[in-house]
Input
Amino acid sequence: MPARKPLISGNWKMNLNHFEATSTLDKLRYLLTKDDYEAVDVSVHAPFTDIRTVQTFLESEKVSISIGAQNCHWETNGAFTGEIAPGMLAKLNVAYVIVGHSERREIFGETDIEVARKVTAVFANGMTPILCCGETLAEREGEATHGKVTGQVHAGIDALSAEQVAAMVIAYEPIWAIGTGRTASSEDAQQVCAWIRAKVAEMKGADAAAAVRIQYGGSVKGTNAAELMAQPDIDGALVGGAALDADEFARIVQYRLA
Ligand code: 13P
Output
């Protein structure tokens, strides 16, 4: 089984308009090197209104950053005012779509069933889902972390083939660590990521578990990326706030130089 190539993803959330997106990418173009792209895969998950601009910039400048989205609908088209179809994203060369982010689940009421439909729709359109899971602070304190994460992962991958699971990305993002400056310790993050991999093995077999990439997300910064990435079951980072600053995001991508 070849080693898993880490994936560092910048989730811009509802930040950076298309002008700001271009200037951020222009800085990253100079900061990141061929060696970086050989060592890690990099994606940026821009707001929908930026994606065409991001595509034009990255393709015309030949920058090896993959285009990402933050969400999509599960249907192909139809009367879903305000929604974006996965096929529309695929047409813009989107490679990765974040699905079931805790902000989608908590603020917009997305259910495990909807998240599973989205995962399937992303695959059906030739893109790779990044399936998010993670517990609240109350769940962690109530020792309900494993149950919560297991339920979310189970629902998200149940309908998939072992080959699809091998090709996808799962992001473990404890909700209490998102945007709070409070990172899970690298031991805690590793422990839950290893648990997720064991659940994947039970459900989809050892090969799928050995291949699936599992990211950690929650207050990842240039100063803590190397320690998190050194953990055997952490294969990348899903970065929020620190991804808005090109220098800081580049430091995370270049964690191996720290
Ligand atoms: P922060 O890095 O701002 O904590 O956000 C993490 C996140 O939610 C990425 O999807």
Q: What stands out?
A: The domain at 7-257 is CATH 3.20.20.70 (TIM Barrel). The chain has one domain: 7-257. The chain is about 45% helix and 15% strand.
